Amino acid sequence: MILERWVFQWFTIADGTAELCLGDGHQPEMIGILDRLETVPHPTDAPNDNYDVYLYDRLGNDLLHGCGANRDTANAETAAIYRSLGTTGHVYVPVSGWSRFRVENAGAYHGGIAIIYLFPPAGRPGSRATAARPRGRGA
């Protein structure tokens, strides 16, 4: 099966955050089963150590289930995306409809790239590329 790749090139505003809404009429919606997250800090404007990456659904749940927390300032990292069932295993996470990509605790005016891989519905393989731009205050 072919993975779909969503690339988020982000730069934070003064409060150390960056975000982008998906499926809001301006950006396409992410649909499929989440596979993994890769993060790559900017080579010259790297984020603060232990910055956080989230993908929220409409109800404010983190679809990455914590795998985007505490990312490294100097090294690229990869993490599998799944929901833990404790000692009984884990399940993969579906995504469909409106969602919000968000970076927090990265420090003012820093950047990087986050790539989310997912298994798309049948007949929709490809690659998506977007840029996370500041929204709201300070933009």
Q: Could you characterize the architecture of this molecule?
A:
- The protein is an all-beta fold.
- The protein has a single domain (4-132), classed as Jelly Rolls (Sandwich), CATH 2.60.120.
- The protein contains no helices and eleven strands.
- The strands form three sheets. Strands 1, 3, 5, 8, 10 and 11 form a six-stranded mixed β-sheet that branches. Strands 2-9-4 form a three-stranded antiparallel β-sheet, with no helix packed on it. Strands 6-7 form a two-stranded antiparallel ribbon.
- A hairpin with a 5-residue loop joins β6 and β7 (90-91).
- The chain is globular.
- The termini are far apart.
- Residues 133-139 have low confidence and may be disordered.
Characteristics:
6-stranded mixed beta sheet; mainly beta; 3-stranded antiparallel beta sheet; Jelly Rolls; about 0% helix; disordered C terminus; about 45% strand; about 140 residues
Describe the main β-sheet briefly: 6 strands, mixed
Instruction: Could you tell me the CATH topology label.
Output: Jelly Rolls
The CATH class name reads: Mainly Beta
Detail the poorly predicted runs: 133-139
Number of domains: 1
End-to-end distance, in Å? 40 Å
N-to-C series of helices and strands: EEEEEEEEEEE
Overall 3D shape: globular
- Percent of residues in helices comes to under 10%
In short:
The protein contains no helices and 11 strands.
List the helices and strands and how they pair.
Layout: E1 4-11, E2 18-22, E3 32-41, E4 52-57, E5 77-80, E6 83-84, E7 90-91, E8 93-95, E9 99-104, E10 111-119, E11 127-132
Parallel strand pairs: 1-11
Antiparallel strand pairs: 1-10, 2-9, 3-5, 3-8, 3-10, 4-9, 6-7
